[in-house]
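Students often ask why we bother predicting the structure of a whole assembly rather than each chain alone. The short answer is interfaces. A chain on its own may look different once its partners are present, and contacts between molecules only exist in the joint model. In this exercise we take three input lines together and write out one structure for the complete complex. Read the inputs first and try to guess which parts will touch.
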Amino acid sequence: MSVLNPLVTNEPPLVQPRRATGVLRQALTLGRTRVGVALLIIVGGIAVFGPLLAPHGPQDYLGLLPNQGASAKALFGTDHLGQDVWSRFLDGGREILLLALAATVIGLVVGVTLGLLAAYTKGFIDDALMRGMDVILAFPSIMLALVAIATLGPSYWLVIVAVGLTNIPRVARITRAAAQPIVERDFVAAAEAIGVPRLRILFVEILPNVLSPLMVEGSLRLTYSIGLIAGLAFLGFTPNPNGADWGVMIQENYVALSVQPWGVVLPVVAIAFLTMATGMIGDGIARAAAGIDRTRSAE
Amino acid sequence: MSTTPHPDPLPRAGEGYLGPAIVVDKLRISMSSGSRTDIVDDVSFEIAPGEVLGLVGESGSGKTTVGLALLGHTRRGVQITGGSVRLGDSDVLKMNDDELAHLRGRVVSYVPQDPAAALNPALRIGTQMREVLEAHNFGAGAEARTQRVAEMMREVALPDDPAYLNRYPHELSGGQQQRVGLAIAFACRPRVIVLDEPTTGLDVTTQAHVLGTVRDLAAAHGVAALYVSHDLAVVGTLAMRVAVMYSGRIVEIGPVLDLFRSAAHPYTERLIFAIPHLTGGRELIGIAGRAPSPGRRPPGCSFAPRCEFVQDRCNAALPELRPIAVGHRVRCVRAEEVRGHMQRQSTNGVHEERASQAAVLTLTNVNAGYRRTTVVHDINIELSRQECLALVGESGSGKTTLARSVAGLHSIRTGDMLLNGVPLANAARNRPREQRRTIQYVFQNPYGSLNPRRTIGHIIRQPLELFGSSKDIDKKVAEMLDRVSLSATYAERYPDQLSGGERQRVAIARALVCDPQVLICDEVTSALDVSVQAAIVDLLASLQRDLGLSMLFVTHNLPLVRSIAQRVAVMSHGRIVELGPVDTILKSPEDAYTRRLLSDTPSLEVALETAESG
Amino acid sequence: MASGPSGSASATVERLTPGGPAAQARPTSAPAVSPIWGFIGRRILLGALVLFLVSIVVFFATQALGDPARAILGRSATPASLAALREQLHLNRPLVEQYLTWLGGLLHGDAGNSLAAQEPVTKLIADHVVNSAFLVLIAGAISIPLSILIGSYAALRRDKAFDVAMSLSTLVFAALPEFVVGIMLVVLFATTVLHVLPGVSIIPPGGKPWDDPTALVLPVLTLVLAVTPYVARIMRASMIEVLESDYVEMARLKGLPERVVITRHALPNALGPTFQVIALNLAYLAGGIIVVEYVFNYGGIGSELRDAVYNHDLPVIQALAMLIAGLYVVLNLLADVATILVTPKLRTRL
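Now the answer. The structure tokens for the assembled complex follow.
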């Protein structure tokens, strides 16, 4: 028997407990995350509340000539049909944001499940799943969406599904890559040894340990989904050609760019800030997660 | 590459130079950012040409940092803030980058701990050996350097033909990689060599060869060597003098014999008691608590919180390093008493023979392996009730595969396994719940076996929740924590707030919370410091007695089995080569492999006895 | 970027982390060259398989889903005209037969006739392919060395001014969709702020893209800004990881001059994983040009594809989709091979 009472000393914890919220909190201390969140609030606010603040409706006839500069009725001038640029701009963010969010959620839900499955089962199922992902990945995302639109026409659900489909394999890859080392860890083997049900192992043991890279990937996917959906509208493929959508605005006012820039500049800047915001937030989360990892391994 | 040779700071040995090769004085190394806490403080020692000084300490003691400082190098986030490292007239710490580049590899060399990682995977080993010669303009020309490379290979007993030199590092075994590392270090005939645990991860026989090579080369070229290690047995075999580090400071330094036979610092004494004895039977005693991390040192002596000799004055002020015998200095106010205490400690055997009981586990003709290869062949063993059977072997012997097969973690297996007479399915998932509860497994790596996202309480509860008994779960968790000597507050903590030893205790608690009959321990102490190792083995032994467990104890550390097992099975290449009571096997083994294993295992007592007699 | 480049399509290439303690060696003689060809052969087969699967997806997505005839003629089409078009497009035959006809035609170099232009598809897109290839090659030739340089330099001067600036700017540009970048460049340099460069880059029929260099500046710049940030970041991360590796530390502890440490030990090992990313980015450009060409009215396959989708010109869409997918597969293959060549460890394990 040991000579001393073997109770360990009561030293305070060395490092803060590591949970997903911990990473988020850490990320918010970084400058770039804060800027990103601020931008997101601004642009997101415009997208969500814009229609309530618009002085005119998006398709209102104002009795003004098309492509005119700023005036009393139209803050930023009129577009190619004589409509108020500012009102249309305030109206145009909702669709993009909602569609992009939906596509991102689809990508995350399906992609994470597939990625976890592939990492856990290894062997044949893993191969089959990854080959399937490869086929989707053999196209640039925009092309996949275009091919779908070519056949079925640009409806809302098609855009969501098509963009979601481009997100799924990328999320699945990242999840699989992050989950593979976790699957090898002994605590997973310990759970298997006592017979914990497989689904529980996947979602309760493994998933919480890949949350950090997933959060980063999620914000990345949101960034690209916004760009893709706006890009599709810009190319002329939108579910709502008459509505005010930032991408559509750019497309229809592009010809008159040298004469009346605002019809293009406002939505372009908004999309730019939106994607920058989500990108910065994602990068902030990545740095926070890496920083926490490093302080741990230094012990 | 410069063409003018840099002046050698030291005259060559044998030219009438009698002073030390390197003198370290009051070395202090701190963190570069934040609170600038020091991680190494007041470290002073000297090494004479041809002498080997062992620098001993557990993880976090700062020993590797000191070793690197001898080359003027620090890792990221750390900087040297005081003291000097003198070679002759020059101070390494005052050199600029150019001078340091000239010094490293030529005057002072480094042998790294992980040979595989230290060799560039994309360059052939011949290139990596030659470039150190080229960088220091060694030899008259390219031809001379080629010859020197061949000579270096012969010195470390590796083939010197060009085909071998064309290999990439991953085409060599661990032992061969380490010898290449040694060759590179000795290439330019340096004055001083720093060896950083170069035999970690090598199997015992390779380790013996590498140590022999180091000893021979150092002696042949009159090199001063600093051998950094946590393994006292190895240090005892190799070094002439030893310095013991604790929490960034040297607590004792002296000749090997004197230090190990009559240690003057309580930490050194406890460290020695924590080493498993190969020949004598002695109880393994660990050290409770853990070493303070940088910035959290208590005022006064750092070891005071864990010391059994502690008095009030120990907490008042940091003791000075003072002489206690010839060439022997110690940092303790009660050193004389400690020394006397150590000499009086007797070695008692604590071995109990247990009456043989009914067999709990029976293995017949078991083979296990992978799709294309069989790794474990023809195993026939029985594990009796309340018995601990040790499975000993080197890496690749199949012991872990066998243990995992018993636990159902490894499912490619043929042959019969019976648990209390009932057959065991190959995979744990296919076994009935009762069987899964009866056999429990503790993993080697305490850093991987606990889910970092769950609290300790949750981790221990999981088996209870699974195996149905839902009443009094909290009570049982608290009981279990108490049994493994962790306070109840640990239930709210997360694994990364615990030390390695504490995590392993949690793993043991998790395994035992459902009252299993059979506990399989897979190298559960290999990733831990020596003192922690002893405490864990002690805990397991007492749990086994109290709970009447049958235990399968897998380890590569032969001396360790004495402290916990009654019988031992020695495995090699997937087969059991010898099986019998611990005493018999360790004292008079019959099998040639077992004998070689015993003779190659470094043992502190043997080393000391050899030193005494010659 | 409209969408990000993703991981390699089929490689099981490992990261260059040398293994830990004693790994049993397989004593081999000098590495044989032939295993590489076997590896390449397998990759080619795998690529062909992927292309085959892709062709099925493309075909069935375009001709099987929905009603192509109605999509082409629109809602107001009469049943008679619909029936006639269906007859002309062989849409009444069994699907599998349609597929095989199409596939057979492709393999013989015949991609059918464009519905909009009533001309063979191959003739229609030939010039456009050259134009796009030119654009992509120039953009690639600029962005790849640039991103390697920027990435390595930032890693060497880590956390200093250049690194911080680079980190922020790559972050911003990596997030922006390319058409946004393109339009902002147009606004800046062509139409509104300055007027130094042309806002459109139309190539007159029969002309070549290199006839008017100033017209190329903005499109190339847009593509470079789309790709460089991403590759530079990967290069930086890879370089940092290598610089912190044990073998680079060991090289310094051997007393090697810093220059040798960087060029012989650090850079080659950092480049390995970057090759994959480079190839992926080149492939990604193939998608990026769809939008960029539209912004600048540049006559490449991107514009062609956009118009074809607008006009529901199925044969053209199918042909271009296969072309771009084929490009992806080839570039992935090159990336895999390049990585193998740079990683001796993988070579000997083949």
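Check your guess against this: Chain B has three domains: 22-239, 266-344, 359-601.
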